Amino acid sequence: MTAREIPTVEHLTLRTVSTRAKLVAIAERLFAERGIDNIALSDINKAAGQRNKSAAQYHFGSKDGLLQAILDKHAPGIVARRNAILDELEARAKPTMRDVVGALLYPIAEKIADPDGGKAFIRIHAQLVATHLMSIHNLCTSSLQLRQVDRLTRALSAAIGDLPEVIAQQRLMLAAILLFHGLADHSRMQDASGDTNPVVHNTLFIQNLEDCLVALLTADVSHAAIETLSAIHTRSSAMS
């Protein structure tokens, strides 16, 4: 195995696993504190005390490879929790929007209490949410992959109901932005002031965020928005 090859499962040793876990933990902290764009792999190597100046590149290939490792570290627990909620909802006749929003919100919000990089994951994901959304809507390409979100997307789309498709897509985009940026900023304020101030009380904030997400996804479409959408369709038809 050369220095340019990323270690595969077959090549992983106890030492390799330990080194990778340390690099991921350091990267989580630095990406969350200083921003993804402000951190290079060399910064992570240095902070992790690696004598090999190319350690992060050796283990993950690139910054995107390291970011993917961070996402994959947290994805299994989130997916398992979400699927358990969706299993329960699918056993009902017709879940409400609030039911489905719970499947969106709570598996992520519970990461705030995860001492193994949970808050950092939320703050990192908030930085990536626009990239993920643009990739989903084919506005850009990204090597980063989200794990098992199709089932949740279908449930949310079904709960939204009869909204015009473009409006529904924008609402789902706004919900993802509000979810991750809201939780990320909340976690920072909570770290700064503790959980004693009612404004940053964790349970109250998450319940209020749930209310906001439900309102966002169920609000009536304004007459002005309908007119704008109609004008877009008319112009698109004229150009085709």
From TrEMBL:
List UniProt keywords, sorted A-Z.
DNA-binding
Coiled coil ranges = none
Q: Which Pfam families match?
A: TetR_N
Lineage of source species = Bacteria, Pseudomonadati, Pseudomonadota, Betaproteobacteria, Burkholderiales
The question of whether DNA-binding is a record keyword is answered with yes
* Keyword DNA-binding attributed: yes
Protein origin, superkingdom: Bacteria
Question: What are the residue boundaries of the HTH tetR-type domain, all occurrences included?
Answer: 25-70
Molecular-function GO term, any one: DNA binding
In terms of InterPro entries, this protein maps to:
Homeodomain-like_sf (IPR009057), HTH_TetR (IPR001647)
> What is this protein identified as?
TetR/AcrR family transcriptional regulator
